[in-house]
Amino acid sequence: MITTLIAAILHFDTLIPQLMAQSGFLVYLLIFAIIFIETGIVVLPFLPGDSLLFLAGSLAALSQKSLNPFILIITLGIAASLGDSLNFEIGKRFGKYLSTSPRWQKLIKPKNLQQAEVFFHEKGNFAIFLGRFMPIIRTLVPFTAGGSRMPYRNFWIYNILGGFSWVILCIGSGYFFGNVPVVKSNFTLIMLAIVLVSLIPIGIITLRNYILQKRTL
């Protein structure tokens, strides 16, 4: 999975410009599908989200005729919100089965799911919003919320706020900073750095849980 993620990151910066030369619609469709799948399919949390949005923002700054930043924000905000809604329903209907089945545990790592559950119970409803900014947690929190029977009305509010805030932040960062010379000349490294930085909160949660377990022994 990690290899696939890195390969995707390394090639999107060439694939999307190629598609832009053919049709801007294809680019919107491709990014919409990836964001929807990354947030909506619980077994695919490793698809590039933050880095892809950052890339889309930087390319929109170069060519607004092919990619319009406002259209990107609207369409991808919808994709992120719909994805989380699907994930919520999967958790609500099949959460218990998927989280306990040995077959599905190969894809839904119990350790990652436990981190998402701890994060959700500690932060409450606000975890839906905060989780948007953390890979893996972003995909598992709505799944956990659905399995916990969180009222959909509460989920929907934080889902919309979190989805659009995440998209605006990532696309806006790419739009304003993605074409700065030092960033542009090290684009692949910058995108990898984004992924690594966004994993820091997960590392903090893991470390804290490890320390707490040691103290209880």
UniProtKB/TrEMBL annotation:
InterPro entries: DedA-like, VTT_dom. Residues 47-175 form the VTT domain. It is found in: Cell membrane. Pfam families: VTT_dom. It is a multi-pass membrane protein. The keyword Transmembrane helix applies. The chain crosses the membrane at residues 25-47, 67-86, 155-177, 189-211. Keywords: Cell membrane, Membrane, Transmembrane, Transmembrane helix. Belongs to the DedA family. This is VTT domain-containing protein.
